[in-house]
Design brief:
The chain is of the alpha/beta class and 235 residues long. The protein has helices at 2-5, 41-46, 56-71, 88-91, 94-106, 203-208; strands at residues 6-11, 14-19, 24-26, 31-34, 75-79, 108-112, 127-129, 131-134, 137-140, 151-153, 158-164, 167-172, 174-178, 184-187, 198-199, 214-221, 224-232. The protein has one domain: Purple Acid Phosphatase, chain A, domain 2, CATH 3.60.21.
Length: 235
């Protein structure tokens, strides 16, 4: 099942696997890594007069629970912007609250804070950190420009726009930057249901991964990784 849903690829001396559902699995650590859940985004907009379907948190948590079951993950690491705002946890309905409490009890859960939820509440369990170093890889919310060590981050919600059979489509993707010395850094797609996206080749994303020799978009398709060049340093 994992092989069908997640496509393996090498990263910074480790084997990772990117899922079609926008999660990243790290088999050696039995860790599922997700970015930008933005729980309770719809209720935040509703309070400001913009009505969105009010089921985003439930759908996000159900997909996350499915990814845990499919991979057999024992750890979940959330890379920031877990809630859409600091008060988002207070707006969760009883069903979603129960789901989240059950997940954080059953798993080694790490919340990394982001710019949307710097004051993340502690009531749901898990460990709250500004960033995490794991097997030589730094996991943080936003890529640190100029970073020379391996890094996994989120924040930008990258999407790749491609032409398939004369149809223009946009799909969430990861963006991988490889430095001249071989160091690799990757920005994950947003996992949340109502998270939208920024073009993978946008200057903000390409700039965040500098210095780099090459930057490419990665998508999981049919159990394999499809790679699309976004930027190449001048020779």
């Amino acid at each position: 099942m994992v092989r069908a849903l997640f496509a393996p690829f090498p990263f910074a001396g480790h084997e990772l696997a990117l899922g079609q559902g926008r999660a990243l699995y790290w088999p050696a650590e039995r860790a599922l890594v997700v970015a930008d859940l933005h729980l309770e985004k719809a209720s935040w907009f509703a309070a400001r007069g913009q009505m969105l379907p009010p089921y985003d948190s439930r759908d996000t948590l159900e997909r996350l629970a499915d990814a845990v079951r499919h991979t057999g993950a024992r750890r979940v690491i959330c890379l920031g912007d877990n809630f859409h705002d600091d008060a988002g946890a207070l707006r969760l309905d009883a069903h979603c609250t129960g789901m989240l409490e059950a997940l954080t009890r059953a798993l080694d859960w790490v919340w990394i804070t982001g710019n949307h939820d710097e004051a993340l509440p502690r009531g749901f369990g898990g460990t709250i950190l500004p960033e995490l170093e794991l097997s030589g890889v730094t996991l943080r919310h936003e890529a640190r420009r100029g970073e020379s060590a391996p890094e996994l981050s989120g924040h930008y919600h990258p999407k790749l726009r491609v032409n398939v059979r004369n149809r223009h489509i946009a799909r969430p993707c990861a963006v991988l930057g490889r430095g001249a010395g071989g160091a690799e850094r990757m920005i994950l797609p947003a996992f949340g249901t109502l998270t939208g996206g920024m073009d993978a080749g946008a200057p903000e994303i390409l700039g965040a991964l500098q210095p780099a020799a090459r930057i490419e978009a990665l998508m999981s398709a049919g159990g394999r990784i499809a790679r699309f060049a976004l930027w190449q340093a001048a020779a």
